[in-house]
Amino acid sequence: MFEKSTWIRLPRNVVVGHGVIDRVVDVVDDLHLQGRPLFVTSPTPKDVAADPIAADFEAAGIDPAVVTVETASFEAVENVIETAEAAEASYLIGIGGGKAIDIAKMASHHLEMGFLSVPTAASHDGVISNRGSVPDGNTRHSVAAKPPLAVVADTEVLSQAPWELTTAGCADIISNYTAVMDWRLAKRLKDVEYSEYAAALSEMTAEILVDNADLIRPGLEESAWVVSKALMSSGVAMSIADSSRPASGAEHLFSHQLDRLAPDAALHGHQVGVGSIMTAYLHGGEDGIWRDIRDALSSIDAPTTAAELGINDETVLEALTTCHEIRDRYTILGDGMNERAAIEVATKTGVID
Ligand SMILES: NC(=O)C1=CN([C@@H]2O[C@H](COP(=O)(O)OP(=O)(O)OC[C@H]3O[C@@H](n4cnc5c(N)ncnc54)[C@H](O)[C@@H]3O)[C@@H](O)[C@H]2O)C=CC1
Ligand SMILES: O=C(CO)COP(=O)(O)O
Ligand SMILES: [Zn+2]
């Protein structure tokens, strides 16, 4: 008897392009959202996007509440929940980088309210995903939440963000290659839940991005267009899978561990990119695709070494040998690398000297 079922949650509106930041009020109207919004933002994105959007709401007779967050933590999520309750907000709008959007996503999930995602940087594929990520004790990875009701990604705003935020978004997408390798390995060895559609979408997204790498240049609005479409597509793969598996394998474990060992040293996307070079080597050896991944990262100005991440070699080795512990997710790291093996992969790939 056939007993399978699936429930895929996706945003209802995805608005991407030049000047669309002016359409947030229209999107809210299209969704029939009533009452007062709470904007969840951080200092620079507030100036760049939240303040102009607030002016549009005020012109439409709506008075938004605003909360500014600095770090991704459960304390920040609780603060947003309390602010939303005190302000009698009826929906949330996350405006900023990955951390502001994740906090809005997690707070809205707790409050059982809808939220909108307004990225100000094309820096990560959580813009549209059904996952929220904040550190929790010794763990550091995303947890199930709900996707935004709508995403409004203004390519003009995204192209004016610091260039390294865009290269981080590209690297987060390029890392899908190894995430999918890990997922297939886990399917073969551990019979984990697997979706061929989500895996194919995730891989195809990375391929399209790499094929268009020559369009990805600083200050070029077309780059923001190419990268944001890839980020959406990767996020949709996560929603189809109802897991971050299509976009997060051992390279993400490595990055999450770096977040603990060297907080704020480098951007999420840059860390997963460097991790992906090494885990591609572990999957395919000398003749595998690790050089293609390294060259793709390098062609879009993303870091390919520990030094370029601003992280010392010892920390890279510690992260490599311990990161399998932070999550119950089977990957090419298996039950962990020993130090000699970690030194070998990191030196052979040029990540450390
Ligand atoms: N929920 C999910 O599925 C996913 C979540 N993530 C999470 O997202 C976070 C990484 O996101 P990031 O955006 O890299 O970090 P972030 O949110 O810390 O942003 C980096 C910095 O850029 C600033 N910024 C953003 N837009 C700007 C602009 N237009 N101009 C100037 N500065 C601007 C931010 O205020 C922040 O200081 C991590 O916590 C990661 O775990 C990453 C991928 C997927
Ligand atoms: O960063 C992500 C995908 O790019 C989310 O993955 P995690 O579940 O590992 O946090
Ligand atoms: Zn990621």
UniProtKB/TrEMBL annotation:
Location in or out of the cell: Cytoplasm
Enzyme Commission no: 1.1.1.261
Residues at which substrate binds: 125, 172, 256
Cross-referenced Gene3D superfamilies: 3.40.50.1970, Dehydroquinate synthase-like - alpha domain
Pathway membership: Membrane lipid metabolism; glycerophospholipid metabolism
Main location (coarse class): cytoplasm
Record's protein name: Glycerol-1-phosphate dehydrogenase [NAD(P)+]
Source organism: Haloterrigena turkmenica (strain ATCC 51198 / DSM 5511 / JCM 9101 / NCIMB 13204 / VKM B-1734 / 4k)
